[in-house]
Amino acid sequence: MTTRPRVQPAIFCLLLVCCTAAILPLPVRAQTEDVPAAAADSPEPAAAAGGMSAGGAQLSLRDLVRAGGLIGGIIMLLSVAMAALIFEHVLTIRRRALMPPGLAETVHGLLAARQAASAREACSQQPSFLSSVLEAGLMEIGLGYREIEKAMEDTATERAARLFRKTEYLSVIGTVAPMLGLLGTVWGMIQAFLEFETKANPQVAELAPGIYKALVTTLLGLGVAVPAIAGFAVFRNRIDELVAEASLLAEHVFADYRRALLSSSSRGNRQRKEAEADSRTPERDAT
Q1: Longest C-alpha distance within the chain, in Å?
Q2: Rounded to the nearest 5°, which phi and psi values hold at 69?
Q3: Quick one: which of 17, 96, 142, 274 is 20 to 30 A from 74 by CA?
Q4: Distances in Å between the alpha carbon of 46 and those of 35, 63, 73, 271?
Q5: Where are the domains of the chain?
Q6: What is the pLDDT of residues 152-175, one digit of tens each?
Q7: For residues 203-235, b (16+ Cβ closer than 10 Å) or e, as one string?
Q8: Of 235, 190, 187, 231, which is closest to residue 74 (Cα–Cα)?
Q9: CB-side neighbour CA atoms (13 Å) of 93
């Protein structure tokens, strides 16, 4: 029995790059523009912009989170949860974890030696997706191959559903994060315009700091959503691939046992037909 060659985990490297880009400080260069003479007379915009110089300022991730306020902090907590989920999925949703090397060969050899109890023990010693499917089939030994096949299919479906449900959290994060970012942006814009309206001699340039802070939450939300949605798609496809491969491998493990059952059944049918033919021969001789 052979398994498919291991796929190079380049896609996981891409995910790690995305996560790193979302976590490392993000330099942002503020563009300089000509300020109207009326705005130059008022120092309020520069002070409200949090110390941004006319030539530009470097904004780190800490500055962005601070500007994002409470909603920005919640989004960053979601980013930590996303990174932890991706790390856990990389470790658990892989061929070696779902199909331990050598397990299929061990169970196949024990089945050929008609040691079903030892085969079940070997499965219980290596908990995994494949061992659960094989153990379900081994529990039905003696009831026919149809029962074995049905037990393995039911177990594979149930275990695959568990894996799929585990990846749903990434989908939730990828959906909630940009919505929180949009909520923070709308709220920030409302506050910016309210503050602008209450000033005695408002200047258009005074809106810039408020709009900048309002847009920060959208940036943070999208920065979390992109790797979360990408990871969700990658891991679901990976589960589909590995579940199909493990199910096929389980069928190969029981292939010799199935052939033995079919051979025994056909031999029994042939012997029964021969016995019936022999029993009819004396009747014809008597007539």
Answers
A1: 130
A2: 70, -150
A3: 17
A4: 11, 16, 25, 99
A5: 60-271
A6: 999 999 999 999 999 999 999 999
A7: bebbbbbbebbbbbbbbbbebbbbbbbbbbebb
A8: 187
A9: 28
